[in-house]
Each structure stands twice: as C-alpha cells, then as structure tokens.
Amino acid sequence: MSSKSEERREHTCISCGINISGTSAAKFDCPECGTLIYRCSKCRKQSNLYECPDCGFTGP
C-alpha cells in the first residue's frame, strides 16, 4: 500500500522529462523488468521513444 507522501511525489515523463503530476499521463510497468514508467500524453500520442532506466528496454 502506498503512503500519502508517495502519492503526492512528483513524477516526470521518461521521454521528455516534464513534471506530469496532475496531468493525464500514463503509468505502466516496463515490459521487461516491471519498473514503473511514467509518460505524458504528448509523448504517448507522438510515439516518442523511451528507455527503461533499470534494464535498458526501449519502446515507443
């Protein structure tokens, strides 16, 4: 279970680096290692590449 301080923590888009707190961003597990990935709606719409910081998996 996550704490309230964790829920309020700022998250950044893994593709462009903007703060995505309070936006319609996506949160999902890396397909390879399960690390939590955050992406803004703009990067998802444009299919910008991302790289998992833990395992190096690259996806659109």
UniProtKB/TrEMBL annotation:
State the organism named in the record.
Natronomonas salsuginis
Its recorded name reads DUF1610 domain-containing protein
The record's annotation in PANTHER family points to: SMALL ZINC FINGER PROTEIN HVO-2753-LIKE ZINC-BINDING POCKET DOMAIN-CONTAINING PROTEIN (PTHR40733:SF1), ZINC-RIBBON RNA-BINDING PROTEIN INVOLVED IN TRANSLATION-RELATED (PTHR40733)
Per its UniProt record, what InterPro entries does this chain match? HVO_2753-like, HVO_2753-like_euryarch, HVO_2753-like_ZBP
Start and end of every Small zinc finger protein HVO-2753-like zinc-binding pocket domain?
13-56
Pfam families noted in UniProt? HVO_2753_ZBP
Q: Where are the transmembrane segments?
A: none
